[in-house]
Design brief:
heterodimer, A: about 70 residues, mainly alpha, two-stranded antiparallel sheet, 5 helices, globular, B: about 260 residues, flat
């Protein structure tokens, strides 16, 4: 998976669980769980929403790694 | 890479050609030397006695898988405090297994009912089975198990849906609603929609393969055994392939 992310760390800093994080970015708990596990790469819109809620840039949360 | 795929495709075509030639030869040979009606009667008698037993066994297996998984998922959902992700992931996993078991059981039950009814009409018409108490028991089991399976399937799916809605309050849909599919889709977010699309494509791809096999079987079956009433059985198998393929792929993608 070339896209790594630090969503779990940022979520911990915010002090919210997956369900609450999902509600903050208007998505489901399952999607947050899948993103954290690296099983799903979010759309640009969702990545921007997540970054905004976390008070970070998209690049700080999501990293692209060459294979 | 391209050459490898081409060689694989040519090998597959040659195999299909050989199967077609052998099948065609057998159909012509048996058509002249055996009684297709006798083979058809034998298949109908096997279907008449076998389908109700298989249907009952399949339903019991489904109950044995679906109900405990549902109960475990319900217990996990009740103790979930909103933080422990492993508990809720496990609950969702078990709910998916319960749903797959229930849907597979119902579609298999429908296929077996088709087999039973086609066989029953055939054996009763020809007087191939005695009209006694045993025969009546098979008729009652054959149809009764399906009715129970149908009721169980609808009620159980609503119970699963209620639990999913409890775990994910954003989900809005009711099994009894005629617009269930569109309402369900509207309440899914982007990751869930990707799973639905991927599973839909997998179901389409598997169904096309099954249709190819069924088409060949129907052609040879009709030529060799002169069996009428293939249509509901074939449609049932296609339906079952769609449902099982879709749900297994969705389960694999969600679990990943």
């Amino acid at each position: 998976m070339p896209l790594r992310n630090h969503l779990k760390e940022y979520r911990a800093k915010l002090g919210v669980n997956q369900q609450e994080m999902g509600a903050l970015v208007d998505t489901s708990r399952q999607t947050i769980s899948q993103i954290e596990r690296g099983d799903y790469s979010p759309s640009v819109t969702l990545a921007l929403k997540i970054a905004k809620v976390c008070g970070a840039t998209v690049e700080e949360i999501f990293e692209y790694e060459e294979d | 890479m391209k050459n490898k795929a081409l060689v694989k495709f040519i090998v597959m075509m040659v195999i299909c050609l050989l199967v077609g030639m052998v099948g065609g030869f057998l159909a012509a040979f048996l058509g002249d030397n055996t009684s297709p009606a006798a083979l058809g009667d034998l298949a109908a008698i096997v279907g008449f006695y076998g389908a109700p037993i298989l249907s009952l066994l399949a339903f019991l297996v489904v109950l044995g898988i679906a109900v405990p998984h549902f109960n475990q998922a319900k217990q996990s959902a009740e103790i979930w405090d909103g933080d422990d992700e492993e508990i809720i992931d496990d609950a969702e996993n078990k709910l998916n297994i319960a749903l797959i078991a229930s849907n597979t059981g119902f579609s298999l039950g429908s296929v077996l009912l088709s087999v039973f009814i086609c066989a029953m009409l055939s054996v009763v018409d020809k007087g191939a089975v005695p009209r006694n108490a045993v025969t009546r028991v098979f008729v009652i089991v054959g149809i009764g198990v399906y009715v129970v399976n149908l009721i169980f399937s609808v009620v159980f799916q609503q119970k699963i849906l209620n639990l999913i809605k409890k775990i994910s309050p954003e989900k809005q849909a009711n099994v009894y609603d005629s617009k269930f599919e569109s309402k369900w889709m509207d309440s899914c977010d982007e990751a869930e929609k990707v799973i639905i699309y991927k599973s839909g494509y997998k179901a389409y791809s598997n169904t096309v393969k099954v249709i190819n096999v069924l088409w060949v079987c129907s052609v040879f079956g009709a030529a060799l055994f002169k069996i009428d009433g293939w249509v509901p059985i074939v449609i049932g198998i296609i339906w079952m392939t769609l449902i099982v393929s879709y749900q297994m792929e969705a389960y694999r993608l969600e679990k990943h």
